[in-house]
Amino acid sequence: MEEREWLKAQLKEIEKWEKDQQKVWFWEKLSRLPFQMLDKLTPAFIQKKIGVLLDEMGHYIQSGGAYLTSEKGIIHQFQKKCADESIQRIEDIGKAPIEMMDAISEHMGKNRTNLATVQGATTGVGGMFTLAADIPAVLGLSLKTLQDIAVTYGYDPKNKEERVFIIKCLQLNSADVVGKKSILKELKSYHASEGKHENMISQIQGWREVVYNYRDSFGWKKLFQLVPIAGILFGAVSNRSQLKGIAETGMMQYRKRRILTRLEELTEQEQSESGA
Q1: Torsion of CA 186, 187, 189, 191, to 10 degrees
Q2: For the whole model, what pTM was predicted?
């Protein structure tokens, strides 16, 4: 198990990242311009696609829907890195070294970001029609990425409370500064109530807001995709930015939970040894 000082140092880095998330960046200011105007410019078939996304998101929270990932590939990656065959289930991954979790998670995040970049460039060619396909595709890739990161840190996305946590990570990545502060506070309390997720589950009613926030933050970026030729560049950049942020957010939040759990385990171990 990792040493306490190392764990505390890693926790400080994550807390610094969380503070940085609460700063306003120029692009965020631009993307938060009134979305009502964009609504008027958005064709009915894209509005309908947003409605489908809302339904799919609700289904995802309730049952995993079409986005639920397979953990076998990730377990296999851990098995290759471990000399023995001690890792057979998601619960076993939770006992692996955090640095190993970090390495696999970072590699996965880079792969997904590259995939989103290619997808954004491709859909940037076709303007409005391919844009309608790109938004749900990126949302689906975002959900799968967060689920894979959850597995990488030993958490099972098949559990409803984990799916709610994933939605909160998705919301954190797309929220404005005020929203980020609120969501970070909710995520902080999540670990404190590990195993008692009544509060988080009760927030399912707000899942529609996640899709709308996601749509809002995408709105102006995606409008650039409607410009011929330039759409290829903007499509690639916006998708890359989105997935890079998603992967980073998921890694930071799940890493934090694992570190806090390890610190608790160390405390319990020390108390047990002192009492022996």
Answers
A1: 160
A2: 0.79
CB 156 within 8 A of CB 257: no
Long-range contacts formed by 204-209: CB under 8 A, 24+ apart:
204/61, 204/164, 207/57, 207/58, 207/61, 207/167, 208/54, 208/57, 208/58, 209/171
Q: Which residue has the tokens 């990126």?
A: 138
Question: Domain map of the chain by residue range?
Answer: 39-264
Q: What is the pLDDT of residues 41-64, one digit of tens each?
A: 555 655 566 666 666 666 666 666
Q: Where are the beta strands (DSSP E) in the chain?
A: none
* Residue 17 reports pLDDT greater than 80: yes
3-state secondary structure of 119: helix
Structural contact between residues 213 and 171, judged by C-beta atoms closer than 8 angstroms? yes
